[in-house]
Design brief:
The protein has 443 residues and is of the alpha+beta class. Helices cover 33% and strands 28% of the residues. The chain has helices spanning 21-28, 44-63, 77-83, 85-88, 111-121, 167-187, 242-253, 265-269, 295-298, 321-331, 359-374, 388-398, 408-412, 431-442, and strands at residues 32-36, 39-42, 67-68, 74-76, 94-97, 103-106, 130-139, 154-164, 192-196, 206-213, 219-224, 257-259, 276-291, 301-303, 309-311, 313-320, 333-334, 337-338, 349-353, 379-382, 402-406, 416-420, 426-429. Bound molecules: '5'-O-(N-(L-prolyl)-sulfamoyl)adenosine (P5A).
């Protein structure tokens, strides 16, 4: 993409309404535009990051054997009356009436609708296990929408629902979600810690939230610092191997890690003092096991091996896709702007032409651009007629992990400059070597 043809409405001033750094940077970098309280338009740069996050979520869900579907945002109230949640959900639910006076709602979550799909099409244990998920917009009429996309009213969520014959099978599905989430967040450059949590309006007893440590987080968290060093890395995970998933879950849930909702001071005091940490965290996901809470009242039953009709065992599992954009920025920025982890960056590399209009510099940039594209990378080429300082400031603000700077002086000796956004370290190398390096980095 060439910057002169792009739509990147960066702001010079720091927006006064934004209280936290991720919100400020998203507005300044031209990623979002508020439409109403807690409701945002995603501008091109923001949309690219959102799509990269979605892509990682899709890949990791499907690696775990979960199947994508797409349910609508609007739901009939009828389904929620069946589960008993229509009245219980309260003022966070946006209720709508259509022209036929039918009660509708903008879905805050989809347990009822997926259970309705299941009961219409599945009747035998032979069709289990089954996990369906989608990535869809939700609406929750939060009392205090704030911090930009972090606590929105309309927000994008990945929500998945498992259907199993037995509790043991459903707990295996729970573990599958836990492990696939660990991998998902790691790919986004995040450390997200599973913490025992409270289940709220979704229900059930077994639930973990995934928290990214950040001072601006909305939850108070108490944890054993040993948990922060755990990494899934590139170990081979077999999602069918129950013992392996159980072992990984034990690895992450044995060290103490809880939110204020479930904190147990006695257990916390038992951790060696040097490892006892109190901080704040951003909730980027939550998984639930709730058994037959929805299947029983809604009549989602299967015939088991003995021919008996039993309500199906269920859980639901959510990732805050749009919130993650803010959470990643909270975890990765500096005084100049965003520092995107390579896994989610909107463009792989920025190309800065120091002397736009200079024939040699222009030609070198064009050639570099073509080579980067041929290597399968997406460059953003700053081809504006601007001072070098302004171009660097824009690149630093929007946070591309790598920048190639092209100028007449370097070109005279056959080199360009490759700069790492995170470390600020630059090196001079030939354009070919720069392309090869970037190709290797993004593998
Ligand atoms: C699990 C999937 C559920 O709704 N039902 C379907 C279950 N869980 S949850 O914890 O309530 O939400 C899942 C994740 O969505 C994000 N989230 C939000 N993101 C932005 N703005 C909001 N107002 C908001 N509310 C929830 C969180 O990341 C949460 O973990």
């Amino acid at each position: 993409m060439r910057l002169t043809r792009y739509f990147l409405p960066v702001l010079k001033e720091t927006p006064a309404e934004a209280q936290i750094v991720s919100h400020r940077l998203m507005l300044r970098a031209g990623m979002i535009k508020q439409a109403a309280a807690g409701i945002y338009s995603w501008l091109p740069l923001g949309l690219k990051v959102l799509r990269r996050i979605e892509q990682i979520v899709h890949e990791e869900q499907q690696r775990a054997g979960h199947i994508p579907v797409l349910m609508p945002t609007l739901q009939p109230a009828e389904l929620w009356r069946e589960s008993g949640r229509y009245d219980a959900y309260g003022p966070e639910m946006l209720r709508i009436r259509d022209r036929h006076e039918r009660d509708m709602l903008y879905g805050p979550t989809n347990e009822e609708m997926i259970t309705d799909i299941f009961r219409a099409h599945v009747g035998s244990y032979k069709q289990l296990p089954l996990t369906l998920y989608h990535i869809q917009w939700k609406f929750r009429d939060e009392v205090r929408p704030r911090f930009g996309v972090m606590r929105g009213r309309e927000f994008l969520m990945k929500d998945g629902y498992n259907f199993d014959l037995t509790k043991a099978d459903a707990l295996h599905a729970y573990n599958r979600h836990m492990v696939s989430y660990l991998r998902t967040y790691e790919r986004m450059g995040l450390t997200a810690i599973p913490m025992r949590a409270a289940s709220g309006p979704i229900g059930g007893d077994d639930t973990h939230e995934f928290l990214v440590l950040a001072e601006t987080g909305e939850s108070e968290v108490f944890y054993d610092s040993a948990i922060v060093d755990l990494k899934l890395g590139d170990r081979a995970v077999d999602y069918g191997d129950r013992a392996q998933l159980e072992a990984i879950k034990a690895e992450w849930t044995t060290p103490y890690a809880r939110t204020d909702e479930t904190h147990d001071p006695a257990l916390f005091e038992a951790i060696p003092e040097a490892r006892r940490k109190v901080g704040r965290g951003i909730e980027v996901g939550q998984i639930f096991y709730f058994g037959t809470k929805y299947s029983e009242p809604m009549g989602a039953v299967v015939v088991d091996e003995a021919g008996a009709r039993v309500p199906v065992e269920m859980g639901s599992h959510g990732i805050g896709v749009s919130r993650l954009v803010g959470a990643i920025i909270e975890a990765s920025h500096d005084e100049k702007g965003i520092v995107w982890p390579e896994g989610v960056t909107p463009f792989h590399v920025g190309v800065v032409n120091l002397r736009q209009g200079d024939a040699a510099a222009d030609a070198a940039c064009e050639s570099l651009y073509a080579q980067l594209v041929a290597a399968g990378l997406e460059p953003l080429y700053d081809d504006r007629d601007e001072r070098a300082g302004a171009k660097f400031a824009t690149m630093d603000l929007i946070g591309l992990p790598w920048r190639v700077t092209v100028g007449p002086r370097g070109l005279a000796s056959g080199v360009v400059e490759l700069t790492c956004r995170r470390t600020g370290v630059s090196e001079e190398l030939t354009p070919d070597a720069a392309v090869a390096r970037l190709k290797a980095i993004y593998g």
